[in-house]
Amino acid sequence: MTWETLATGANLTFRLDPEDEITGKATDEHPVKLAINSCSIGGVPDDAHPDLFAVAAWTVVAPWTRKRVIFDRAISPQLAEALHSGWGVEAGPVGAEARQAGRTLAVSYSGGADSVAAATVYPEAPFVHFRRVAHTRVPNRWPHYRSDVLAKLAAKTGRELSTVNSDLEFTLAEPRPGYPEHHAVAAGALLLADQLDLGGLGFGYEIGSRWLGGGRYLWRYTPDNPMWSPHGVWGRLFAAAGVHIVLPVGGVSEAVTMRLALSSDLKDQVRWCLRGTDGPCRNCGKCLYKELIQAAVERRPLDTPITADRPIARKYLRKPPFGGQEMIEYGLARVPGIENTLFAGALGHFEATEESTSWLDHCYPRAIAEIPAQWRDQAAAFMSAQVGMMTEDEVRRVETWGS
Ligand SMILES: [Zn+2]
After folding, report:
1. pTM confidence score
2. CA-to-CA distance for 87 and 155, rounded, in angstroms?
3. pLDDT tens, 157-201?
4. How far is the CA of 273 from the centre of ligand 1 (A)?
5. Could you report the per-residue pLDDT of 26-71, keeping only the tens digit for each?
6. What is the C-alpha to C-alpha distance for residues 80 and 91, in angstroms, rounded to an integer?
7. 202 has which bridge partners?
8. 25 CA distance to ligand 1 centroid (A)?
């Protein structure tokens, strides 16, 4: 790993070892193919702690690395140990003192409903927004992705905001430009951690991502989720660099994050669709999924131009299991007139009722318990006041999900 620091930010270049492979696996086991061995992260300082540089680099190169990783500046023994115990790689050189966690919690802010909901739990938290920019050496075949629109919306929130421009998603050739690891969205925040005095970084991952299999380990309760649990490989690595992973809405469903986001003072800046300029496009798969949730939350009929013959509609009409299934069940049970919509065909796959899906309106207590102590009480008070905690029966619904 070589970091070149410039007045405009930092450039990462990496070289694979002979045993490394061009197609690797991200922590969620999804295969990812390498496109190019360089990327840039704009607007970050050149004097961040070496462990921060190392973790930022690791969020990019982890899928392709097999046995060892050599950084251009010495890391702490604690960080080397987290890399070794987590991934089995030898990391070095070792020789720095560990970074102490700072006092501030920032929110990794995307502008989507989950991210906005996480932000409402901590109204004083500054935002770090990752903005995709084109790579100088990789053609951009995805110009419909309006990262400029999202960045403008983030700037209108009134929060203290650091926008990090990065082309790191273009290190990925397949399946398409994107984060090599989900944690790469935090690369800029990590490099800003000393400057912002960060001790924690909040993400908008909700109960489905954290506890119900994360969309990839389908239909399975995942207390030991390797990506987002504090004791998982990434949780330990971030903690070793003094930036704890915090999931303010990790105990609630997308119905709750939708309700919180659309009733918050950031509601005018919420945007989950990456295609539209003046508003969501209403025509993509994500818009359809979110419309089902929003209609359920607002107790109104579905409002979509999408018809059942479209491929994006068929995706949600398959037999279970599939990612986001709990929210399809929630929507089917609650949207008036759902039997007259494109979702009619899905009704036969489920026996969802309001009662059988009511656990998705409450907060799973273990999600609050795993928030670091300095930020836990605020999240607990927020969830008690705004959402309500799950009963024992509802907790059992989470812990027996899919079984
Ligand atoms: Zn859309």
Report:
1. 0.97
2. 37
3. 999 999 999 999 999 999 989 999 999 999 999 999 999 999 999
4. 4
5. 999 999 999 999 999 999 999 999 999 999 999 999 999 999 999 9
6. 5
7. 107, 246
8. 28
Whole-number Å distance, alpha carbon 88 to ligand 1 midpoint, is 40
Cα 80 to Cα 394: distance, rounded to the nearest angstrom:
40
| 108, 186 Cβ separation under 8 angstroms | yes
**Is the separation of the CB atoms in 327 and 335 below 8 Å?**
no
How far is the CA of 85 from the CAs of 50, 207, 231, 246, in angstroms?
19, 26, 12, 21
175 Cα: distance to centroid of ligand 1 (angstroms): 19
- Distance in angstroms (rounded) separating the CA atoms of residues 394 and 181: 32
DSSP per-residue string spanning 178-239: S-SSGGGGGHHHHHTTTTTTEEEEE----HHHHTS-TTTSTT---TT-TTTSTTSHHHHHHH
Structure-token match 């020789």, residue found: 95
Q: Which residues contact 23 (CB under 8 A, 6 or more apart)?
A: 31, 32, 33, 34
Task: Evaluate whether 24 touches 175 at the Cβ level (below 8 Å).
Answer: no
Q: Distance from the CA of 279 to the center of ligand 1, in angstroms?
A: 9
Q: Provide the CA 278 distance to its chain's centre, in angstroms.
A: 24
Q: Compute how many other C-beta atoms are within 10 angstroms of the C-beta atom of residue 35.
A: 17
Cα of 337 to ligand 1 centre, how many Å?
Answer: 23
